[in-house]
Amino acid sequence: MTFSVPVLVRGYELDSQGHLNHAVYHQYGEHARWELLRAAGIPQDKFFASGIGAVVLESTIKYRRELRAGDEVTVTAELDFDGGKIFRFHHRIAKLDGTVSAEITVVAGAMDLTARKLIADPATHFRGLAENPELLGL
């Protein structure tokens, strides 16, 4: 299942060439991730209260087409658990006409905030917290 959120590119997010600043793509992905978790029934406060925090281990962006102020985009978020300690988020940022502006892959983990180590089975933890685990592919 693909989850998505709308975003309007704002003028203050642009670089000196008038394109969306590279760092903002990461922010759009993070926004989509938290919105996906919230829609699944895991808002930030509930997630942190469980003693677990999400950590980004790697983030890769493939830029396809530029974005400018006023562009309306959809940011997708799909979660992929592979059975180990890490999982992946896949994002696509596309204009309303379907033009793909960027693709982002984030490798992440769920860290025990006391032990400061990744938990062994994040999918089970997410499933236990979620009210709508199907949104997380669980």
TrEMBL record:
The keyword Repressor does not apply. InterPro entries: 4-hydroxybenzoyl-CoA_TE, HotDog_dom_sf. Pfam families: 4HBT_2. GO terms for molecular function: hydrolase activity. Keywords: Hydrolase. The keyword Cell membrane does not apply. This is Acyl-CoA thioesterase. It comes from Nocardia rhizosphaerae. The lineage of its organism: Bacteria, Bacillati, Actinomycetota, Actinomycetes, Mycobacteriales.
